[in-house]
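Following the same procedure, sequence and fold were stored together, as reproduced here.

>
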Amino acid sequence: LTIGFASRLAGRAGVAVALLGLTPTAVWLLGSVNPNGIEIAAASTLWLGLLVLVDRPDSRATAVVVATAGTAVAWARPFSPLITLGMLAAVGLLTLDRRRVRALWRSRPARVAVAVVAGAILTSLAWSVTVGAFDTFIGRPDPSLTPGVAAMRSWLSTQDRLEQMVGRFGLLDISLPAPSAWLWAAALGVVVLVVM
């Protein structure tokens, strides 16, 4: 579905960009028994499905896929409703003008898809609050952790995180060579710069 939406949006160039977004690690996770595979597939499909829906609001098939993918993303983890909301907001802010908002509002399939995703976000948030999912804490609290120290630790973890996103497999013990992760990131950076 992701590749099909990319093709509908931008032809071969769209397919190339969508494939660039599916890193080797993402493809490996899609084929494993791992909830990350479902999240990755649903999120990439939702991103591109939303873009197609903005462009073609009367497509029932696209609306069904957006509703399904949006529900899967929203229900994946406790913080997933916030991620789903962020995806909706990003696509809205970057693509919608008055004409498109009117077209979406006039389209019953688009309204139903957005309502389904909104319902999934609300039910997921309600569930997470009810069961106390936001109250869990993994790790030990560190009172000496200031925002500056946290930012530095995060920056120092960039190489490891990039390698995990692009090319770490198995039980995190098999990796692509380190330069491949940076080359992948550079290619994505070029795409972002061209699009902007």
User: Anything to note?
Assistant: The mean pLDDT is 83. The beta strands are 168-169, 174-175.
